[in-house]
Write a structure and sequence with these properties.
- The protein has about 325 residues and is α/β, with parallel strands linked by helices.
- Helix content is about 30%, strand content about 20%.
- It is built from eight helices and 18 strands.
- Strands 1-5-6-14-16-15 form a six-stranded mixed sheet. Strands 4-3-2-17-18 form a five-stranded mixed sheet, covered by helices on one side. It has a three-stranded mixed sheet with strand order 11-13-12.
- The protein is globular.
Length: about 325
């Protein structure tokens, strides 16, 4: 597929009719069911952020930085991580979904699809994707297309760990769940030092407790991203963009969604022996941004999202763990 290929409104339905899509979804679901809720990924790796139905932006990044293909591409030597929010907003969500599911089926241990908050039937019902499906697949095929794909989304993993040192998830750490600091050494973000704890004393701020083991225990399939607090934190929360503000705070997104401070990020990385957390979920001018003294990176791959003037980016992780925004 050439990166400069222009998307026709009728091409996808002729290329992948609903019957073929059903077979594709069945195969993708079988693969996801065999894999963990938190997948282990080898470096080097490319991490893509939100795509939001902007198919040409994906092709542009492929053209510029390598294509996941074994004929002239780099998929046999580089892992590909797509960090959620594949659909909605853009007008080529169907093409994005078909491409990513085909890549997952073709390269199940090289291509990794991580769930975002828009991989939720209630969310992707209201941001343009149902209309796109009906436009391309008709009044009967369109809803069937979306139902089949949402069935796959329910089995997507919530996180990926690259070389045991970099955690990828869509939103963030959220509010944490620990109420005491028993058997926890507190990390002082101001001094960078480990601080002695008082056995059994109550925690003054919520401590990030999002361990990979906790995530792996979450049962699948997951259809609703808002009913389970841990799932909601993983998929919906955002970092506070001022590193001087600590703790957990209300999020402008509303409801029970929160923002988390750099203290939670650094503490979580220390306790889990991680160098970095990579998340997506928010656009930035250059397509990426670092927080929490370099312990948290945000990446977004859809350009000019919802009329904004933002670039799209990916993060390249070398075998040695060096992070290079592209």
């Amino acid at each position: 597929m050439k990166p400069q290929w222009k998307v026709s409104k009728t091409f996808i339905a002729s290329l992948v009719p609903v019957d073929d899509l059903q077979l594709l979804c069945e195969e993708a679901t079988k693969i996801l069911q065999r894999q963990e809720m938190v997948v282990d990924v080898e470096a080097p790796a490319k991490v893509f952020g939100d795509i939001h139905g902007q198919f040409c932006d994906v092709l542009l990044l492929f053209k510029m930085y390598g294509i996941p293909d074994h004929h002239g591409g780099d998929v046999e030597s580089v892992s590909y991580v797509f960090n959620g929010d594949f659909v909605d907003r853009g007008n080529t969500s169907c093409e994005v979904v078909v491409l990513l599911l085909c890549l997952k089926c073709k390269y199940p241990d090289r291509v990794w699809l991580i769930r975002g908050n828009h991989e939720d039937p209630e969310i992707n019902e209201v941001y343009g994707w149902p209309e796109e499906c009906r436009q391309k697949y008709g009044p009967v095929g369109g809803p069937l297309f979306r139902d089949l794909v949402n069935g796959v989304f329910a089995w997507l993993p919530l996180g990926a760990v690259i070389e045991k040192k970099i955690l990828c998830l869509h939103g963030g750490l959220g509010r944490g769940t620990l109420e005491t600091i028993q058997q926890v050494q507190i990390f002082d973000i101001d001094t960078g030092a480990l601080v002695s704890r008082v056995e059994g004393s109550p925690a003054t701020v919520a401590i990030g407790s999002l361990f990979a083991a906790q995530i792996k225990e979450i049962p699948r399939p997951i259809y609703d991203s808002m009913t389970d607090e841990l799932v909601m934190d993983i998929l919906w929360s955002d970092p506070i963009q001022n590193d001087g503000i600590k703790g957990v705070h209300a999020n402008p997104r509303g409801g029970d969604i929160v923002e988390f401070g750099p203290d939670l990020v650094q503490r979580f990385c220390m306790r889990n022996d991680l160098n970095l957390i990579i998340r997506s979920h928010q656009p930035f001018e250059d397509g990426y941004m670092f927080f929490a003294r370099g312990h948290l990176a945000s990446v977004f791959s859809a350009r000019d999202y919802c009329g904004q003037s933002n670039d799209g980016a990916l993060l390249f992780i070398s075998r040695a763990g060096k992070i290079t925004p592209k």
